[in-house]
Amino acid sequence: MLQAFKKPSAIRSLIVPALFVGLAGVGCGGDYGHDGYYNGYPGDYGYSEASEDRFNDFGENEFIETGEENTSSFSIDVNTASYTIMRRDLTSSRLPNPDSVRTEEYINFFRFDYPNPQEDPFSVNMEVAPSYFGGDEESDLHLLRIGVRGKDVSIEEMKPTNLVFLVDISGSMNRETRLPLAKEAMHEMLDHLRPTDTIAMQTYASGSDTVLQPTPVSSRGQIESAIDSLVAQGATHAEGGIIQAYNLAEQGFIEGGNNRVVILTDGDFNVGKTGDDLVELVKSYRDREISLTSVGFGHGGYNDATMERLARDGNGNYFYIDTIEEARRIFGRDLPSTIEVIAQDVRIQVEFDDDAVKRYRLVGYEKRVMENEEFDDESTNAGEIGPGHTVTAFYELELHEDAGDESDFLAEVRVRHREQYGEDTKLQTSLIKLSQAHDEFADASDGFRFAAAVAEFAGVLRGSQYVNGARFDEIKSIADGARYQGYSEQEEFLDLVDMADALWQE
């Protein structure tokens, strides 16, 4: 997110472009990015071949001249796996692989106090302020923040729920951070579902077995026995398991309810359909009104690339569980937002006033950028929002010097969504003016400033071309001054910044 420093930094510079030219073709595996972990520091990019974790390199959004194209469109994203993979790595004393860093997933790990929606299923909120990090003497930059908040739904208010656990019990899951943690996660979800909700379970390894037919949660003992009976062994043949899991979901289908397949795996698919073929298989089930949640476990051979694509193309969401506390967050406290959908195919389009904005750049969302004509296309597949979800996106803007004199208009923000499968989309439009911009970064809301610090942190870790140095001390200072009191995830972020700083200096 940094274009240039306003002040010199004591922390050494990161000469990103030269480093990445030197990295081209190093440690690549097929369609994936660099394999393994980033174990080095700037100037010494080293990857552990033994780990073989696989990530897609989505590149980075660049600045666009508004005079050439004044409209930008993208699908929303509520995934958080990239953030917890980073947390896993830092707590294991290694810096994350740059290809594992997806800026939007870092930001959207946190919930911000945007206003509750009134009539629509979500609210749209905008804020503009000068960028603390971006800009130089010739071109100071501003940040436009777009924030979306889904309406709150309690567990008691959730729609009737039909879940199918699709559990990888192959030999690669036979580690403490994999199948045992997955079993704890399933028990956690069971603790928060209602007696009338149903659970089924399908496993896959060398073959595929139905361990549990759709069963009401009131038969808790039967479900717990099925979970506890799981043992890891064999190869990883996901294709048959996915087909049967969707069949089970259809068998227990609840009209107008939450119908979802939850796949728990390390993503090490090695038998049957894999990669693109496996993703295409999931896409073929998308119109059955059954959503998919991808839940990842483990490291060393972990396939983030396929896990992310399965969720993206399966009308779903993607989480990575590194601790039992994370399982309690997504399957306990945040259960409604994990399994219920209140708005489908949600996409955002921003039209900038080229009299005010000289150029702009979408920060993150590289895997979600869409052609502008897709925004109005009813067949476009986009992201889903669950109850209580907050989705945050930043645009980095360079304004014309005389923008305030020529035009008070900055941008029009359009959001499309559909409330139910098969319905036409609805359009929501908002305007923001230059007169609404804060004079100083420090005047922006706490949520704005904290999210900007998180975005900057992600930019440093991914080796962004717009980062000229690693200002961990300033990232921490901004985040510490803006965090919500009593919000443990934001407090933990400060510790993660310290860990990254220490590893960066080694």
Question: In words, what does this structure look like?
Answer:
- With 506 residues, the protein is of the alpha+beta class.
- It has two domains: 16-153 and 342-505, no CATH class; 161-339, von Willebrand factor, type A domain (Rossmann fold).
- It contains 14 helices and 17 strands.
- It has helices at residues 16-23, 81-91, 103-107, 179-192, 220-228, 238-251, 275-283, 304-313, 324-333, 335-339, 403-406, 446-462, 472-482, 488-505; strands at residues 64-65, 71-75, 122-130, 141-150, 161-168, 198-204, 208-216, 258-265, 291-296, 317-320, 343-352, 357-363, 369-370, 383-385, 390-399, 409-418, 426-433.
- Strands 2, 11, 13, 14, 16 and 17 form a six-stranded antiparallel sheet that branches. A six-stranded mixed sheet has the order 7-6-5-8-9-10, with helices on both faces. Strands 1-12-15-4-3 form a five-stranded antiparallel sheet.
- Strand 5 (161-168), helix 4 and strand 6 (198-204) form a beta-alpha-beta unit.
- Helix 4 (179-192) packs parallel to helix 9, helix 7 (275-283) packs parallel to helix 8 and helix 12 (446-462) runs antiparallel to helix 13.
- The model is unreliable at 1-50 (pLDDT under 50).
